[in-house]
Amino acid sequence: MDPITVSWVDPILWDVMKHLVFRSGILSPKSLKMARQVCRLWYSWVAFPSIRLSPKRLASVGDDLFSAYLQHVETVYFQEFEINDIPILVTSPIMSPPSGRNKLRRIFFDSSTVGPYGAKLLAQVLSNNKNIEEMNLRFCNIGNEGVAEICSMLSSNSTLKKIDFTSNQITFEGAKCISDLLKRDNISLQSLTLSQDALTPAGLDLIADALKTNTSLQRLVIMLHNDTGPFQTELLAEAIKTTKTLREIKFGPTMFSPLVSNALAINNSIKHISVNQHAIDLNGITALANMLNVNFSLETLDLAYTPLRDDGASIIAQPLLLNRSLTSLNLSYAHLSNAGTISLATMLQANATLLQLDLSGNNIAAEGISALGQALSTNNTLTSLNLSSNVNIGAEPLAGFAAGLAANRSLLELILDRANIPDHGGIAIAQAISANQTLQRLRCANNHFGPAAIAAFSTALASNTSLVHLDLSSTTAELAPQITAGLAANRSLQTFILRHCSISDTEATYLARALKQNRTLTHLDVEYNEIGVAGMVELSSALSQNDTIARLNVAHNEIGDVGAIALAEVLQRKATPIEVNVTSNKISRGGEGALALDQAKRKNLNLSLEWAF
User: Fold this and answer.
1) Mean pLDDT, residues 230-238 taken together
2) CA-based torsion, 24, 25, 29, 33: positive or negative
3) Fewer CB atoms inside 10 A, N or C side of the chain?
4) Contacts of 111 (CB under 8 A, 6+ apart)
5) With 0-12 CB in 10 A as exposed, 13-18 as middle and 19+ as buried, what is 286?
6) Cα gap 133→186, rounded to integer Å
7) Helix residue ranges per DSSP H, 156-257
8) How much of the chain exceeds pLDDT 90, in percent?
9) pLDDT of residue 246
């Protein structure tokens, strides 16, 4: 019997099957029967979330084991499918399973060439499908004809709730089909995405008109662009005023207008609004602010990549002083500097509902960051603050911000990645962490911390009891020797990420010593460092004495065959479940290191091992 193709099998199941029934990669009739029994047991225990399927893998669908596996998959990503592959697909057990024997819920054809004919075949097979709830047809070239087939199917299908038509050359004719669908009673469609399509203003008006009476749609993404200028949005605004079911709406460039803002002021059902990448002017910003003054149901406002600038931020901040519904505000890459940030900080001192604020990718400097620190000292509701990619933060002293952070008792997550923070700034942040006992996640990757800052973080770890996630990746200092004492004494940290930190064997040895004493860390990530044989031997020794580490990532280092053997010897004996990634570590193909790792995988059923040469 030929060797069975097993690339589709869940990695852990594959290990079990190899351990129990495989001999030199060949399945005998007896062992094949045993493999099937293992599969049945496994499928009854585990829910398989997803699988990526290419036309080549589709040829394995006739295999008994593969067919059994597919009956338990919930999501399939179809990759590189062409029009000629669709007829084979729709007749396969994936799309046409035996009755009651399929758990498939989501199908994604992103960037596959489905075409109008493929859409017709999919519509036919889905017309009676009672399982699939979501279909993604992004960049599938189905055109108006394909949209018509899918809409016809949706008019009778009671299961499919989410559809994505992004970039399918949909014009007025396709919009007419979508409009007719939305006007029908008793349809189940809840989420519709129309992005980067060629809808004319007349096509948008058709869809807007349908929204007035539609009672099923809850999420609408209309990221459309009109080359001839802004869309006329009168009908869209009227639809927003009257809809009672829509909960989320996302606008594209040239689609958001004062008329739409005024309509949103009246609507009490929409909870989430996104107008990112929109060239909004001051009139539009003012209309948006007026909406926030009177709308008491909106929970999320996403203005990412919208050039508000300082004047716009100040206008938006004003109504939020008294707003009691908004919980999430995204102003990332909104061209803000100090003045706009100060307005937002003033708002935070009065606002009592905002939980998440994203100010990443702006131009915040000394005055702005100090104002935010002052706001943190009095605000008792904000739980997440993102200040990443504000490169001018690091050029200024952070004492004011750090003092506010130390006093704060609500913030759970702080993101300061790529903020150009030097040693003195790192010291200030670390000292704040020593005093703060509520912050749980701190990301400070890609900064310029020196030895003094790392020593301060070590001191903070020794006393802090709330931090569970710390990312100090791409730190320029010799990190590991400085951090060891704090990590050894810490009793809260669960995830420690130290990528691109130039950790050598000597520093890996210090880390290993800390791991022998630490009893809370579950995830250590030291990918892209310079750990060699000696360092891996020491880490392996620490792993043998540590029962809490459940994930270890040492990919893209230099452990070689000897380091792989040392690791494999420990992994064979681990009694607790553990995931290990040793990809790209100069392990010889077919060498002793590879054989040792393979043996560890076969002997230890608690081990999930990822590696490649």
Assistant:
1) 79
2) positive
3) N
4) 138, 139, 140
5) middle
6) 16
7) 172-183, 201-211, 234-242
8) 62
9) 94
